[in-house]
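Work Package 3 (structural annotation) set out to generate three-dimensional models for the target panel prioritized at the project kickoff. During this period the team completed the workflow that converts sequence records into discrete structure tokens, so that structures can be stored uniformly alongside our sequence database. As a representative example, we reproduce one entry of 140 residues exactly as it appears in the project archive.
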Amino acid sequence: MLIADMFTGELSFPHDVVDLSIGFDSFWIVWPSGTRKVAKKQCFQKWKAGELWKQSGHIIRHVKFMKTTEDWLKQNGAFIPMVITYLNQERWADWQPDDRPTVDPVAATRELLAERDRNYRPPSADIKAKLQALRREMRT
């Protein structure tokens, strides 16, 4: 039976049943294609030996993130490491995903104000009269 931690999403198993290959196929599919995506058998051995299945969710999220960075995009992926190098150096270990939304606060405020202005309707004459009556009442 597969158990996922509700806070981290990391996978765990009861001690009597452990499939050491969990997550490897997903990891391999997510890794960018190219000349550095080689040695699948050696990578799989490293995956099993290092019990990387325990961190598979974090590792896969890191690879997905790295695929969007300039380091991995520049020169048509020339700086993407070999998969085995990535695994051996545990490059995901120090990475923490940024769960905060990437919103420009100035642009968001401008949009909110613009929406408010688009939806603005001046009060009707009867509302204005009621407000004036309330103000007079409060002064007395």
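Residues 108 and 114 are 10 Å apart (CA to CA).
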